Amino acid sequence: MRIGGAKGLLPLHGRTLIDWVLDAVSGQSDEVLINVNGEHDAYVRFGRRIISDQTPDWAGPLAGLQSAMHYARHDWVASVPCDTPFLPGDLMARLLAAIRTNAAEAAVAVVEGRRQPTIALYHKSVLPRLDAYLASGGRKVGDWQDTLHLSEVVFDNAIAFTNINSPDDLTRVNRIAPDDFARMACATGAPTTAKVK
Predict the structure, then answer these.
(1) CA-CA distance, 14 to 35, in Å (whole number)?
(2) pTM to 2 decimals?
């Protein structure tokens, strides 16, 4: 069973999931936007600008990215989900380094041989293509990423990308002592990048 509703407000060690995510990314970015559809008031207390999808009918993560690209002040826009609370502190630096190394327009995290498609960094120049993809009915993040000049960034520390999708996932993570989990999440391996397209 998957978790529905306002997932970002679920408790993890006495704090909400989004509290953990904000802690992880706030020091890595000059601006943090929260994409919310339907529970706007519940997120006001986090003190960040709240944006909603411009594409109707709950079009998924790409619709949130589309709105972020429209509203963001800077040319580079990262996306992270609210259910990965222990993201590494060097996430943005390594994604940006891969983009610069490969002259790419986007970079995505890869863990244990699999892309983490919702954890990525994009140049705003891709927005017209994203608009067109969503207007055509496209919804799959990975399929759209395949159309971009994309770098993959391999992270060795899989635990930092723990994704909480089910009540069992949340229960399991709540059993780990917060200090232990934070220490494991901060451990990083040597960066490896691969130019994909």
Answers:
(1) 23
(2) 0.89
